[in-house]
């Protein structure tokens, strides 16, 4: 861990002209909150760069009276792990604030269950969202931008620049969609190497805020991901996913019991020369590098480097050790990591993601079940589609065959209020503990038959009846005549790339049949 020599007793001290400039812009969180006006919009970046001190100071000012704040609108992709109970604590009824937020994690769910009324969910779709929804916020003229304030967490400034650290994904976009940009400096955040859109000149930051890391509200919950123990069901799913993997694959993996099971399965396998191109980087990558599985040596782009967009430093010192000025990790904004065009150039990409529900036609639900938001789409759509544009690419949507309360995740028809996150025509591999199937280019009957085969055995008869009601021919003679359906294996698809994805710089001339 850096000794962070430019801080002394929690305050910035002058050490050179650049640090003096930073010191001149440094204010307390309370001073920042005093400059916020009723009716202001505050954009709070996302997990990994989710500034907490200024947000807490704003919540503490909410209320009635001339010195209080009302009608505050906060916008965030995801305040997943820090300060998730501020709304519950300071304005439970949502009388004075509303939090517009994409992802919903445990802290937010707990606050909602306890009666927090200030939460407002919106659909979030990563790269498409960056180009689509942020058009609402951005203006070329800074004074005309929609968000009154942007707040973000950064690493200790170096030279004349600040670093987006663990939340690069939309750090720069936040800076470009607000009238005033405020950065809180955290001693425990690593200076992460670019990539792109990671470093911002200090002149583009309006204020800096000192953070007291001894405050429990500003500390990440400590979770050693190495201690996550996958269930036997997760291990079975991981085995199925491993069956379609090859040496040199480029991984996109998340966090949780199932991803951990996949990582452990890879650790014990003969796979080698793996690479990383992912949204979320973390312990899974550190572990596989230590095991000699990841070296990024066979990547078609960003060779030798793990490309990533955000991280959650559950064990700050371990993340700092791995990522501080480590050129093996290249931090990128989401418009790079999750972009269809980027993914089309990542040969042998394999994205491993989860889902909540899928119908027998292959429509995938991940964000909102029965009208109840449970998380968000995130990069699932981009990686599912973009990954298949990769030469030899595959994407896997994986889950247990049943929910914790015993309901089948594979259903005949979706329910009212379910939100489709990935349309059926884009779905590639689907895995449960009962197998893994490839739905790419399949007919309705083929999709239904494959999905029913990996449903819980006790649910398959009912699913067959549902298919019959929908007129889907799962019992047709064609399955007897050609049971293998002439379907390619994962290995046979290793050199496959859609012809129309070859880059064309300029259109060709009109064809001349006589030439």
TrEMBL record:
The keyword Hydrolase applies. SUPFAM superfamilies: NagB/RpiA/CoA transferase-like. One of its GO terms (molecular function) is acetate CoA-transferase activity. It holds the Pfam family AcetylCoA_hyd_C. Residues 318-467 form the Acetyl-CoA hydrolase/transferase C-terminal domain. InterPro entries: AcetylCoA_hyd_C (IPR026888), AcetylCoA_hyd_C_sf (IPR038460), ActCoA_hydro (IPR046433), NagB/RpiA_transferase-like (IPR037171). GO terms for biological process: acetate metabolic process. This is Acyl-CoA hydrolase. It comes from Desulfurella multipotens.
